[in-house]
Design brief:
- The strands form 2 sheets. Strands 1, 2, 3, 4, 5, 6, 7 and 12 form an 8-stranded mixed β-sheet that branches.
- The longest helix is centred in the last third of the chain and has 25 residues, at about 300-325.
- The chain has 2 domains: about 1-235, Ribosomal Protein S5, domain 2; about 235-415, 2-Layer Sandwich (Alpha-Beta Plaits), CATH 3.30.70.
- It has 13 helices and 12 strands.
- By secondary structure, the chain is an alpha+beta fold.
Length: about 425
Amino acid sequence: MSDRIDAMRAGKVVHDIVRELYGSDPAVLLGQTRRYAGLLESLCHYFPGDRSVEFFSAPGRTEVGGNHTDHNGGRVLAAAVDLDIVAVVSANEGSVIRIRADSYPSVDVSVDELDVIAGERFTPSALVRGVCARMHQLGYLVGGFDACTTSTIPEGSGLSSSAAFEVLIAVILNHLYNGDSIDAITLARIAQYSENEYFGKPCGLMDQTTSAVGGLVTIDFADFENPIVKRVDFDFSASGFRVVIVNTGGSHADLHDEYIALARETRAVAKAMGGDVLRRFSKRELLSTIPTLRGQVSDRAILRSLHFYDDDQRVVDQVSALEEGDWDRFLELVIESGYSSWMLNQNCFSCSNVSEQGLCVALAISANVLKGSGAWRVHGGGFAGTIQAFVPTGLVGEYVGQMQAVFGEGSCHELMIRPVGAARLDVG
C-alpha cells in the first residue's frame, strides 16, 4: 500500500479515466493523483490493516436550463461537472457503514437499523441510512464498508454536494453488494428518496440523475416514475466560453420554507385546475383560467406557474439550439431564463430578508460586464447562493476579478463539463 501511495504522490499514477474526469492539464492531474493518495493515507490511518480497496467518484452538477421545473413534471437541462466527491472504499465483514471525511462529521450507520431517526435529519448519516433503507425496500442487498471521502464541491455552491454524496453511497453499495446490477436512474431515485424522506429536503430528481448519468443531459419528468433522460451532443470546450459559478454567500439556514413554497404554490395552481402538476395542462389553459384562479391561489403562485411554462419550453429550445450549433440563440435563452426566475419565479431573494440580495447584485453586475457577449442566470434553488454565467474566454479574468472584488476571493468556480457519471474508478 505504501508503494502505491508514494507513486500517486509523485504523480506517476495517471490513467485515462482521471483525464476524462478532470481534463489534461498536467498540474490538475498531479493535484488529483495526490488527492487520491491522500485518501489512501486516510484509510490506512482510520482503518488500518491489509485490505483491498477501490475508488469511487460522484460529480456535482450545474443546472443549465429549467429552473424549478422538475417539481411539476417539467423538463430540465443540466450537466455533470469536474468538481466531485471521491471515496476510497473497503468492504468490511460487519453491518456498519463507517465513513471518515474531510468536510463533515464521521458517519457510523448500521444497515440493521434503517428506520428514520429524527435527530439525524440534515446530517450525512441520514443520507446514508436513507439510501440503505430504500435499497432494502426495493429488494437490493446492503452491507457494511469502510470509506474515506474528500470533496471539491463547495457546500452552498448550488452544485449539489448532497446529491453527489447520496449517489456515491448508492453506487458503492451497488458495486459491493449488487454486482453493479442497478441502473443509473434507479440509483438516482434511491438517492432522491433518501434526501426527501430521511434528510428532510423536498428536492426533485434532477440533481441525482445528472450526477448518476454524467455528461450534458436533458431530463423530461412528465412521468415521475420513468423520467426520459437524453444526452445532448454538444462540445462546450469548443465554444470559446467558460462556465463560471459565482457564490454570492448568504445563509441557506432559514430558506427551507422558501423552497417548499415554490412547489406548494405551483401545485396549488395545478390542483385548482383539476390536476396534480402543471405539466398536465397547457399554458393556454392557465391563461384562460387566471380570472377564476385569483382568489383561490396567490398572485405569486400564478406568476410562478407562468414561469414554469416558459422555462419548460425554453429547455426544449435550448437543446435544439445546442444540437443545431446555434450558440447565440442558446445564450439568449439562458438570459431569458434568468430574468424569468428573477421576475416571475421570484427566487432571487427571500421576502423575509429583503436587505440581503446578493444574487440580484451578482446578476446586475453580470449584465453590465457580459451584455452582448455572454449570459447569466440564477443557479439552482435560488434565494441565496449562486448564479451561473457563460463567459467568453477573453473576459474570464475581468469577470472573475469584478465578482471576487464584491463577493470575496474564491467565490468564483470555473467548471468543466464531465462526461462520466458516478462510478467505480479504475485508477490502478
